[in-house]
Amino acid sequence: MKVLVIGLGGVTNGGKTTLAEKLKNMLPNCDIISQDDFFKPESEVETDERGFKLYDVLDALYMDEMVTSIRNWMKSPASSGVVTEEPQNTCDNLKNVYILIVEGFLLYNYEPLNELWNRRYFLTLPYEECKRRRSTRVYQPADTPGYFDGHVWPMYLKYKNEMEENASMQVVYLDGTKSQEELLSYVYSDIIEELNKLRE
After folding, report:
1. For residue 141, is the peptide bond before it cis, meaning its omega torsion is within 30 degrees of 0?
2. What is the Cα–Cα distance from 7 to 56, expressed in whole angstroms?
3. Which neighbouring-strand residues pair with 51?
4. What is the pLDDT of residues 134-159, one digit of tens each?
5. Most exposed: 67, 114, 138, 190, by fewest CB within 10 Å?
């Protein structure tokens, strides 16, 4: 049995969840873990001097729990409730391969996670498009006025710069303004290539 752990990270509202769900439907034995499931409760998230809840930082998440969840999945993916029905057109030789897609906005800035990836993808968006998309979403708790410019976008740039400065990290950057079909087609082909390498 082989496992492939794929990171699907990137900017808020970049299309990570949609892409992950579509990939899951196309790939054999595929499961998703979402970073959003590891947010601390609002009462434990720090507030800065402007009154902004600091959600877009590693401290707002139970990162150790997330790493444990991924490791547990890697130990026994078959028992994680993965649907092992074969999607159409999947070759028989992929039956003993299990794929985990981990999607979230802060995946590559936490060292214990970086030991786990087979492939890293990172969705980007220009500032204006990201802000436009974010304004159409309803969050719990809701974004306060100025929150995007005061916290969300600066933190995205900070962590993206950190990631880019880490020369040893191989990341495939994806343009989040491209159509969902185009992104899906590219990432799917890339993962299939990775699966073929696993089999060799």
Report:
1. yes
2. 18
3. none
4. 999 888 878 889 999 999 999 999 99
5. 138
> Domains in the chain, start-ordered, CATH in brackets?
2-79+94-198 (3.40.50.300)
Q: Which two tokens mark 33?
A: 């873990």
pTM: 0.90
Give the residue numbers annotated as catalytic, written as ranges: 36
Q: Is 137 helix (H, G, I), strand (E, B) or coil?
A: coil
> Rounded to whole angstroms, how far apart are CA atoms 168 and 154?
24
pLDDT tens-digit map of 9-54: 999 999 999 999 999 999 989 999 999 999 999 999 999 999 999 9
Residues in the chain: 200
Ramachandran sector of residue 29 (left: φ over 0; alpha: ψ -120 to 50; beta: rest): left
Interacting residues of 135 by C-beta distance below 8 A, sequence separation 6+:
148
Q: Which residue, 135, 110, 116, is CA-closest to 13?
A: 135
